[in-house]
Amino acid sequence: MPDTSPQSAIETLRADFRARLSAASTDRDLKILDDEFLSRKSGSVTALLKQITAVPADQRREFGALVNTLKTDIETALTEARAALTASRPPAGAVDVTLPGREITIGRIHPLMRVRQQVEDIFMRMGYEILEGPEVEDDYHNFEALNMPPDHPARDMQDTLYLAAPIVGGTWGAHRRAIPDAQVRAATLLRTHTSAMQIRYMKTTPPPVRILVPGRVYRRDNLDLSHTPMFQQCEGLVVGEGITLADLKGTFEAMLQQLFGDVKVRLRPSFFPYTEPSAEVDISCQSCGGTGCGTCKHTGWLEILGSGMVHPAVFEAVGYDPEKVTGFAFGIGMERVAMLKYGVDDIRLFYENDLRFLEQFPL
Ligand code: DAH
Known about the structure:
Layout: H1 6-23, H2 27-38, H3 44-50, H4 60-88, H5 111-125, E1 129-130, E2 136-137, H6 139-142, E3 162-167, E4 187-190, H7 196-204, E5 209-218, E6 230-240, H8 245-260, E7 265-272, E8 275-284, E9 301-310, H9 312-318, E10 326-333, H10 334-342, H11 355-358
Helix pairs in contact: 1-4, 2-4, 5-10, 7-9
Bound molecules: 3,4-dihydroxyphenylalanine.
């Protein structure tokens, strides 16, 4: 038989409140509970109190006390629940650690820088010193001391960008080891090749020499598939007693096989004013394995660098004794290496900073 005593009505309401409270999770839920149970007009507790008239007179006092206790209990429970809710909320301005993070896009090494680092590593292992030189040069270092006096026809091999006004006494060489020039000359041009640093180095350092000079060079070329007015080279120079063409060839074989894998290397006679003999160096075409294809223009070979044995006139210009020392030198284009290594057929891609291109290279 259901208990219909006034006490049981109180306990039913208490149980009802507990159940409702445990389901409440917001301030709004608590407000609704407050109204529903404690509202002076329509709250369930108020309604219960009104039933006092139905309670036998001798029990009214006790009933009233019990309802009041229930009312206080509900008030206390609501107050505590509000406090707990407030405490569980993050303070204003707090970081919401549950939000998904922002994706960090990781940059990668530019393909030209990667090639340069690889070339530097190879020569570093062979004991070369690596240094940089000025991009703004004077005529003497870029041409004259390299056996190209004024009006020498070989100056036309490279179309030069001249400065509007010469720079006198400029400073340079913030990177790595600076090689100053004993004589201060006015810079008049942008260097057309890194070969200018051969002169600066030998003028200030006695033999033996083993250096690698990476850096930017400039020429008056229009942009096309294989030309940019600025590009990057690595110059190499080795000088000492008894350096021969065999050293030159052995060095190139070691370097090119580390750079390109299992390739054949051949020397082709060429001309540079600062070397004698001069040679252009080819590697066997990787696309066709040497049988001939579009990449190698059906020759089976790809030109990769210019080189030669240092011309005695260059030694004389820097004060070395050509009777005592010999040497070899070379210049290798970074873009050319990168194009062949990564199968890029348009040099301009390296300088457009298009992420769709750059993101194709490994991290
Ligand atoms: N300076 C040449 C160029 O820019 C490359 C070169 C050829 C450098 C022969 C050398 C060399 O040191 O011996 O095309």
